[in-house]
Amino acid sequence: MDVLRVLSVTMGRISTFRSYQIILLLAAAMAVVAFYYFGSEKQNFSSTTKRIKETQASHNTNRDDADLSLDIRSGQAESRRGSRDDLEEKPQRIKRFHALMMFTKVNKSLNLQNKFQVAMRSMAKHGRFLEDEVLVLHFVSDVGSQELGERMLHELLLDATFLYEVVFHNVDTLTEKLFPIVEAMQKHFSAGSGAYYSDAIFFLSVAMHRIMPAELKRIVQLDLDLKYRSNIRDLFQEFNHFSPEAVIGITREMQPVYRHTFWQYRKDNPKSHVGDPPPDGLPGFNSGVMLLNLDAMRRSTLYNQLLEPKRVTQFAEKFHFRGHLGDQDFFTMIGMEHGELFYPLACGWNRQLCTWWRDHGYGDVFQLYYQCDGPLHIYHGNCNSPIPDD
User: Fold this and answer.
1) pLDDT tens by residue, 176-228
2) In 3D, which of 314, 311, 312 has the Cα closest to residue 329?
3) What is the 3-state secondary structure (H, E, C) of 71-124?
4) Is the peptide bond before 256 cis (omega within 30 degrees of 0)?
5) What is the pTM of this model?
6) What pLDDT sits at residue 345?
7) In what order do the strands lie in the sheet with 351-352?
8) Of all helices (H) and strands (E), which one includes residue 270?
9) In whole angstroms, what is the distance from residue 113 CA to residue 106 CA?
10) Residues pairing with 289 in the sheet
11) DSSP assignment of 148-193, as one string?
């Protein structure tokens, strides 16, 4: 009996001990629940993540290597957002890097579609941006090409590690705005004779500062036949090296195009360096890659004076100039006397591959223009030149 009594008392104590344990565990669980529901000020994962990102962004507000312009989307430009969902959680003062490409008649050209694929895939492959930065891709397009572009971009930028937005600008709307500004210069720098309304779009870079919203301060204009070998973000950093007078960053022409175009002026002025090869000559510019400081273009009295019809005609007559390459011809012509308006972008940012003039009368001097030393950041397959594989 004594043994049974001892056993009964022992079992009772154990039962009591377990009851205390259960009570303590329940109390602890209730305390945790109370903490999250009453002590956390209704925070959740999304709001906490947003607060962290805003804090990180505030630490970067002193960086001056990005365009802090606002979203420029308007009623005239149909826009699509191509970034990831978490772009919605970014702070309002997100940093945007703007790049623009002509995207007309692409739906009717398999060749242009192939070039577009090469450009976008290589841009996505090498592009790297910080988490509070967005690359805004502007496309000047017709309706048919826009529909195709929207379908293609989703796939081509699928592997992009950076946030991006896509904005389509209607080509007819921009042309209507441009034509009154550039009509006078078209007869000097367009194919054929006379000023054609549709040709105005090829002078977009010349007068972009007058037709784009004032909030858009800097933009990079890019040809479609490019292949990127470096981070495109690094290209935007070149804006930081502009002189106070410079409004446009651009590379030199890498063929003797303007040696040929200025032949009459060179004949009349044999001591001139107009059209000569680098490093001492003035070979002209290539517009395949351009950095447009729209703010500086708006402020520059000299640059805007050079857009006036009377000044354009004076320059064209002085240099006996007759071109067909649109904005590139205009920049080349005024650059012969006003080089201070241009920041000389390294040739590696627009490594032109066309060799047409080598086989058309200039083989003896071609290499003097074509040579490009230094890192190669962007290949330019101009005149349908094949672009090397990586």
Assistant:
1) 999 999 998 988 998 765 556 678 999 999 999 999 999 999 999 999 999 99
2) 312
3) CCCCCCCCEECCCCHHHHHCCCCCEEEEEEEEECCHHHCHHHHHHHHHHHHHHH
4) no
5) 0.79
6) 98
7) 226-228, 378-380, 351-352
8) none
9) 6
10) 222
11) HHHHHHHHHTTT--SEEEEEEEEHHHHHHHHHHHHHHHHHHHSSSS
Q: What is each CA distance from 42 to 72, 106, 165, in whole angstroms?
A: 35, 51, 32
Q: Which amino acid is at 277?
A: P
Mean pLDDT, to the nearest integer, of 35-46?
Answer: 36
CA distances, 167 to each of 101, 124, 131, 376 (Å): 11, 17, 20, 29
Ordered alpha helix ranges (H), the chain: 2-38, 45-59, 110-126, 143-156, 171-189, 204-211, 232-236, 257-261, 263-268, 294-299, 301-306, 309-318, 327-335, 366-370
Sign, CA dihedral 72-74-79-85, equals: positive
Q: Is the dihedral of CA 358, 252, 219, 228 positive or negative?
A: positive
Whole-number Å distance between alpha carbons of 307 and 330: 9
Residue 27 CA, chain-centre distance (Å), reads 59
Half-sphere exposure of 284 (CA within 13 A, CB side): 26
All structural domains of the chain, each given as residue ranges with its CATH number in brackets, are: 79-384 (3.90.550.10)
Cα Rg, the chain, nearest whole Å:
31
Question: Whose CA is closest to 100, among 68, 133, 140?
Answer: 140
Q: Residue 340: count other Cβ atoms within 10 Å of its Cβ.
A: 13
How do residues 125-163 score in pLDDT, each as one tens digit? 999 999 999 999 999 999 999 999 999 999 999 999 999
Phi/psi class of residue 384: alpha, beta or left (left: φ > 0; alpha: ψ in -120 to 50)?
left
Q: Which residues pair with 98 in a beta bridge?
A: 136
Which H or E run includes 338? none
3-state secondary structure of 326: coil
List of long-range contacts for 201-204, beta carbons under 8 Å, 24+ apart? 201/102, 201/104, 201/140, 201/171, 201/174, 201/175, 202/326, 202/327, 203/178, 203/326, 203/327, 203/330, 204/102, 204/140, 204/174, 204/178, 204/327
Q: How far apart are CA 13 and CA 24, in angstroms?
A: 17
